Amino acid sequence: MVSLDQLQSRLSDLSIGVHALTRPEESPASRLVKLDPNTVLNLRNGRHDVIILLGSLASGPVMLSPQSYIGLDGKGKLRAGPWGAVLFHMVSPIVPGGPKSIIKAENLSWFDGLQSGVRRCNFRTQDYSVALVDFTSGTRIRPHRHDRGEEIYLLAGELAGAPKRLKPGDWLRLNPSIVHAPHSETSTRFLVITGHLKPDGVQTA
C-alpha cells in the first residue's frame, strides 16, 4: 500500500498562494496552488489539468477528494472545501475546445503497464497524457526518452534514475533530449505528464 503521509507533511508547510514550478517563460506552466478554506480559484482562458493533492475541491456541485482530476478547456471556477486544498495545476494557453472531464478518486480505473510491477490510471489521453503511475518495490524501467517530453510529480515512495532521485513533493520536467531509467526500491506513486512538449522543449501545438 502506498502511503501519502510524507507528501501531506511537506505540502502542509506551503504558504497560501501560487508556487510556480516552471520558469515564467515556460509553457505549459506547472504550479502548486494552496487555497484557504472555501476560497475560489478563477481559471483564466486556457487548457487546465488539475489534480487535488490535499484537502477537497468543488467543481460546480461536485466535491472532489485527493487524487481526483479535473480537465478543463476555457475559463472556470473551482472552490476549495472547508479545510482548504492543495493542487497541482498545469495550464497551457491553447484552447482546442475539448469537453470538461472530472475523475473522482473513488472511481480511478487502474490497469497493468507494459512492464511487470507497473500500474497506471489515465486522466487525459487526448493530445498528451496525464496519469497516475504506481511502481511496486524493485521495479526498474530500461533507459529511454520521451519524444515530446515528460513531467513527474512524486506523491509517495521514492524514485531514482529519473534522472534525479525524487522524494514526495519533488517535481521534475524532462525535455525530449533527456534519457532516464526510473526505478524504485519501495512502493511508489507519481503523477506523470507526457507528450506535451515539442522536441525543442516548448509547448505542443
UniProtKB/TrEMBL annotation:
<dbReference type="InterPro" id="IPR014710">
    <property type="entry name" value="RmlC-like_jellyroll"/>
</dbReference>
<dbReference type="InterPro" id="IPR011051">
    <property type="entry name" value="RmlC_Cupin_sf"/>
</dbReference>
<dbReference type="Pfam" id="PF12973">
    <property type="entry name" value="Cupin_7"/>
</dbReference>
<protein>
    <submittedName>
        <fullName>Cupin domain-containing protein</fullName>
    </submittedName>
</protein>
<dbReference type="InterPro" id="IPR025979">
    <property type="entry name" value="ChrR-like_cupin_dom"/>
</dbReference>
<feature type="domain" description="ChrR-like cupin">
    <location>
        <begin position="102"/>
        <end position="197"/>
    </location>
</feature>
